[in-house]
Write a structure and sequence with these properties.
By secondary structure, the chain is mainly alpha-helical. It folds into 2 domains: 84 residues, Cytochrome Bc1 Complex, Chain D, domain 2, CATH 1.10.760; 154 residues, Cytochrome Bc1 Complex, Chain D, domain 2. The protein has 12 helices and no strands. Helix 3 packs across helix 7 and helix 8 crosses helix 12. The chain is elongated and about 80 Å long. The structure holds heme C (HEC) (2 copies). The site of one heme C has 26 residues, from helix 4, helix 6 and helix 7.
Length: 243
C-alpha cells in the first residue's frame, strides 16, 4: 500500500511539474511546429503584460479579443506591433514603446499572430479616397451608438469590453491616436466590409448580409472620415512607421 502511494506521488509530481514547465499553449505550439525560442519569449511576455486584460488565450476581457480569426485575417503585420508600441491612451491600454524592447514587442506580436489559422483577407492599401463630410453623416447615423460621439469610444464601464448586460460590449475608440497610427486604411476598410464575426461589429458591404448595407464608395467615405481624426503632429515615430 505504502509503495503504491509512493508511486502515485511520484507520478503526480511529474505530471504537475510537466504542466507547470510546459503550459498548454507551449505544448500545442510544439505539437504543430510553431514553437521556437521567440515563441516561448512571446508567451511569457504576453502572460506578464497582456493576459490580464486580453485573456490567457486571447479570448478578451477588459481588452478586445485577440484570437478571433475575423480580426487576425484582416490585421496587417504592423498593426499588432504598432498597437503595442503606441497603446490606446486615454483608453485602458498604455503604450509599451517606452517599456519594452523592439525585439520583445515583436515576440509578443508573433505570439498573438500564432493564433491565426485562417488566410490573410486584408487589403494592402494605405490610402483610401472618400468624402469626409459624407463619412461624417454616415458615422453619426450608424456608428456612434457603439463607438461613441465623434468616435471617442463606447463607455468603459469598469470591465471594459467584458460582455455583460450592464457593461454591454462597447466599441473601441476610433478617434484615438494610438489606433490611427497603427491602422492602415486597408485594415479599417476590410473591417467594415467583413465585420468582426464573433463580436457585435457587423459587416457593412452590400451583398454580405450586413445589418446596414452600404456601397463600397460609402465605406470609403467612412474610412476617410475616421482618418481625418489623425493628428499630423510629427510626434514620436516608432520603428515600424514605414510599414
Ligand atoms: C489594462 C488593460 C490592457 C492591457 C494590459 C493591454 N491591453 Fe490591449 N487593449 C485594451 C483595450 C481596452 C483595448 C481597446 C481600446 C478601446 O476600447 O478603445 C485594447 C486594444 C488592443 C488591440 C487592438 C485589437 C483590435 O481588435 O483592434 C491589440 C492588438 C492589443 N490591445 C494588444 C495588446 C497586447 C499585445 C498587450 C500586451 C503587451 C495589451 N494589449 C495590453 C486593454 C489592454
Ligand atoms: C453594435 C455595435 C457596433 C456598431 C453599430 C458598429 N461597431 Fe464597429 N465595432 C464594434 C465592436 C464591439 C468592435 C470591436 C470588435 C472586437 O471585439 O474585435 C468594433 C470594431 C470596429 C473597428 C475596428 C477597431 C479596432 O480597434 O480594431 C472599426 C474600424 C469599426 N468598428 C468601425 C465601425 C464603423 C465605421 C461603424 C459604423 C458604420 C461601426 N463600427 C459600427 C461595435 C460596433
Amino acid at each position: 500500500m505504502k509503495r503504491q502511494c509512493r508511486i502515485f506521488c511520484v507520478v503526480f509530481f511529474i505530471v504537475t511539474m510537466g504542466w507547470v514547465l510546459f503550459p498548454e499553449n507551449e505544448v500545442n505550439a510544439y505539437r504543430d511546429g510553431r514553437w521556437n525560442q521567440s515563441y516561448s519569449t512571446g508567451l511569457k511576455l504576453y502572460a506578464t503584460h497582456c493576459a490580464a486584460c486580453h485573456g490567457k488565450n486571447g479570448e478578451g476581457g477588459i481588452g478586445l479579443p485577440l484570437n478571433l480569426q475575423s480580426f487576425l485575417s484582416v490585421a496587417p503585420s504592423g498593426y499588432i506591433r504598432k498597437t503595442i508600441f503606441y497603446g490606446r491612451l486615454p483608453r485602458q491600454m498604455i503604450a509599451y514603446g517606452p517599456i519594452l524592447k523592439k525585439a520583445e514587442i515583436e515576440a509578443i506580436a508573433s505570439f498573438v499572430r500564432g493564433w491565426q489559422v485562417s488566410d490573410y483577407k486584408g487589403l494592402d492599401i494605405n490610402r483610401v479616397a472618400g468624402s469626409v463630410s459624407n463619412g461624417k453623416l454616415l458615422f453619426d447615423g450608424m456608428c456612434i451608438g457603439c463607438h461613441g460621439l465623434n468616435g471617442l469610444g463606447g463607455p468603459q464601464v469598469g470591465g471594459g469590453h467584458v460582455t455583460n448586460a450592464i457593461a454591454g460590449y462597447p466599441g473601441p475608440s476610433l478617434n484615438n491616436q494610438g489606433f490611427l497610427k497603427s491602422a492602415t486604411d486597408g485594415y479599417i476598410k476590410a473591417t467594415l466590409m467583413s465585420g468582426r464575426v464573433g463580436t457585435p461589429m457587423g459587416s457593412y458591404l452590400k451583398g454580405k448580409q450586413g445589418f446596414v448595407e452600404l456601397r463600397e464608395q460609402e465605406i470609403n467615405d467612412l474610412v476617410a472620415y475616421i482618418r481625418s481624426w489623425e493628428k499630423q503632429d510629427g510626434g514620436p515615430r516608432d520603428h515600424w512607421r514605414s510599414e
